[in-house]
Amino acid sequence: MGTTQTTPPTAAELWGVIKKEITGIQLLWETVNGLYFQQQGKEWQALGDDTPLLVHWIQTALMESLLMRVSRMMDPAATGKFTNLSLEKLVTADASISSEESAIRAIWDESGLKAVRDKYLSHNDLHRALTEDHTLNIPLDTTDIDALKKLAQGLREFRNAVNQKLSGCPYIDQQLDSRIQNEIEILGRVLAGGNQFFKELPDRLLEAGC
User: Fold this and answer.
1) 62-82 per-residue burial string, b: 16 or more CB within 10 A, e: under 16
2) Predicted model pTM
3) In 3D, which of 16, 4, 43 has the Cα closest to residue 163?
4) Closest by alpha carbon to 62, among 179, 178, 182, 184?
5) Cβ distance 75 to 84 under 8 Å?
6) What single DSSP character describes residue 34?
7) pLDDT(58) > 80
8) What's residue 172's pLDDT?
C-alpha cells in the first residue's frame, strides 16, 4: 500500500485512514475467532462435515487477509520510492505516539509472523513451490494464532490511545465486534434450522404419502 505523493500528509490525515484499517482488522479477527477458534455447536460442525473444502478455504482466506492487513500496518514508512500507510509512517508525522507504536511493534517482532508473510503471501517463491507440497492454507500454528489475537487486541488499544493524543478525545468504539458475534450466532441458528428441516423431511414426505 504505497504512494509517490510529494506533499507529506499530516498526522490527522494519516490517522483518519489508519484507524479505519485497525477497525477492519478488529472485525476480521472477531469473524475468524467466532467461526473457527471458539467452541462451535453441532450445526457448524455439520457444515464442516458436509462441505469441508469450502469451510477450510473460507478460513484460509480470512486468515490470509488478517495477516496481510496486520503486516501492512507494520511496514516501514517507505519502501524504495513508495510511501506506505503504516504505523511507522504515522510516527514520522507525529513522534508523540512513538511509545504506543513501539509496544505494537514488539509484539509483531516477537511473533515471527513477518517471516510467514514474506515466505507465503508476499510472493510465490519458486524454490519453495518446487520443493514443498502445495497446500491451500498457510502454515499457522497455535502460537501464530495467539500472536494475531494479541496484535488485534493491541491495535485496538493503540487506536484508543492515539485517538486521545491526536484528536483530544477517546475513540468511540461502535461495538462492531458485537455485531459480528451476533451475526455468527444468527448463522448458527440458520444452520441448526436447516439441519432440523432435513432431518424431519423424510418423515414429512412419508406422512404426505410421497
Assistant:
1) bbbbbbebbbbbbbeeeeeee
2) 0.83
3) 16
4) 184
5) yes
6) I
7) yes
8) 76
